[in-house]
Design goal:
Layout: H1 2-25, H2 29-33, H3 38-62
Helix pairs in contact: 1-3
């Protein structure tokens, strides 16, 4: 479970990097890496959306910040 959380956070960081590149330069590097294939691009985004949902779920269920007051 710990490795899954690390993987999901790493996936979100990579998605944030690609999003930042697109936001600041207007060049969609992720779409370029997917070789302009819509199926691969949308699959990549779908997997990362599930990773985001799992990260939110793990923050709610496991309460990692419970002892910080």
């Amino acid at each position: 479970m710990k490795h899954t959380c690390y993987l999901c956070v790493a996936m979100l960081i990579t998605l944030a990097i690609f999003g930042g590149i697109y936001a600041f330069s207007g060049f969609n590097a992720l779409y370029f890496i997917c070789m302009s294939n819509d199926t691969v691009y949308r699959s990549f985004l779908a997997v990362h959306a599930v990773a985001a949902l799992f990260t939110v779920y793990s923050l709610i269920v496991f309460k990692p910040f419970k002892g910080l007051k």
